[in-house]
Automatic annotation (TrEMBL):
Keywords: Oxidoreductase, Signal
EC number: 1.8.4.12
Signal peptide as annotated in the record: 1-24
Name this polypeptide is given: peptide-methionine (R)-S-oxide reductase
Signal among keywords: yes
Native species: Novosphingobium sediminicola
Catalytic EC class: oxidoreductase
Reactions that this protein is recorded to catalyse: L-methionyl-[protein] + [thioredoxin]-disulfide + H2O = L-methionyl-(R)-S-oxide-[protein] + [thioredoxin]-dithiol
GO MF annotation terms: peptide-methionine (R)-S-oxide reductase activity
Lineage per the UniProt record: Bacteria, Pseudomonadati, Pseudomonadota, Alphaproteobacteria, Sphingomonadales
Amino acid sequence: MRPTRRQLMIGLSAAALFPARAWAAFPLTLPDAEWRKRLTPQQYNVLRGKQTEYPFTSPLLKEHRKGTFVCAADNHPLFASFTKFDSGTGWPSFWRPLDGAVGTSTDHELGYARTEVHCAQCGGHLGHVFDDGPRPTGLRYCMNGAAMKFTPA
């Protein structure tokens, strides 16, 4: 049985609403036009479009000063510098976020389940977390440098 044109249109309309609902669940929500004004094209593509920057391209990869890594979209504190480590992957990596700083969800964009990490304040895509990190957590928060800024202590 083929769906009617009406059923198809209702289904497409409902599907279009789901991303808006997902973004609306965060404390900071802005219209897309405002995000585009606030962010560089690369930041927008990563934070709002869930893209991944090329490895070894972020200046934050070599950032070793004491301080805090914050969300590039809203300056929400994400990671303390002492949790950063060299994972050899080409992306800034951390073994623990600050309490309440990030949220996670499961994505299947590559055909298998991965744990996506987003800013708890604005919902911006930061990267992914893997279970191959160092002690004490055993986790590797593999972040896009374009999604963050560094604030020195």
